[in-house]
Amino acid sequence: MANVYPFFSYVNNWKNIKLDYALFKSTSPVVEGYTNLFDAIVDTIISAMENLGYPNIPLIVTESGWPSGGNINVATIENARTYNNNLIRHVLSNAGTPKRPGRSIETYIFALFNEDKSSQDDTERHYGLFYPNKSPVYPVNFSP
């Protein structure tokens, strides 16, 4: 199990990572066969497990998401909508990753609701697909 957040990788290395790569919007490989940062992170974790002697363990992504607000300029509703919808489309396609093509990646989106009473930083409170009043933050398509 792993939490996979291209958002943090992008924010901490924005000079070297293109936003389109983090949002699943690249149309051609950016790094040796990878068209998105999510797959690159997943395959890095799989490689580490293989190096530890566990080559056939399935990886479950227990958290992934993109904040729709907060104190970081790329934490926007548009980027959150793009990331989460593209993530859903990607994992439902069963395309897998370059390291494990054609294999499903069980993935869970963080989070269902924005956390308006969270004591976490401002960005952390804006990962939800819905506001606390149950209205959607942006449209989400759960179809492949």
Give the SSE layout.
Blueprint: E1 2-3, H1 6-12, H2 19-22, H3 37-51, E2 61-64, H4 77-92, E3 107-109
Parallel strand pairs: 1-2, 2-3
Structural commentary:
It contains four helices and three strands. It has 144 residues and is mainly α. The chain is globular and about 45 Å long. The mean pLDDT is 95. Helix 4 (77-92) links the parallel strand 2 (61-64) and strand 3 (107-109). It has helices at 6-12, 19-22, 37-51, 77-92; strands at 2-3, 61-64, 107-109.
For the termini, the CA-CA separation is 23 Å
**DSSP helix count?**
4
**SSE run:** EHHHEHE
Structural class: mainly alpha
Tell me the total number of β-strands: 3
Sum this structure up briefly.
The chain is mainly alpha-helical and 144 residues long. It is 29% helix and 6% strand.
For this entry, give a set of tags.
144 residues; mainly alpha; three-stranded parallel sheet; 6% strand
